[in-house]
Design a protein that fits this description.
There is one protein chain. The protein has about 80 residues and is of the alpha+beta class. It has 2 helices and 2 strands. The chain has a two-stranded antiparallel sheet. It starts with about 25 loop residues before the first strand and ends in a 12-residue tail after the last helix.
Length: about 80
Amino acid sequence: MLIEEDRLAFDTPISHLLPELAARRVLRDPTGPLDNTDPARTPLTVLDLLTHRAGYAYHFTSTGPLADAYFATFNGFGVGNDTPA
């Protein structure tokens, strides 16, 4: 609806709507340490989020330190299963 009304475009940077996503960093190695990051090369767009190509990992696809961080952050809920820990 917002796209149809020209109030939002697919190529709109998400940082215009969510400024906290302006200085994103990405993992150099998805299974490596969480502090081993680089600045993101391109800004996220509305289309990136709608098509799941933003680069965000899901708990069920993560391994290593990232999976551990998901588990710690969400108290195990949904990590490895779909029931609370």
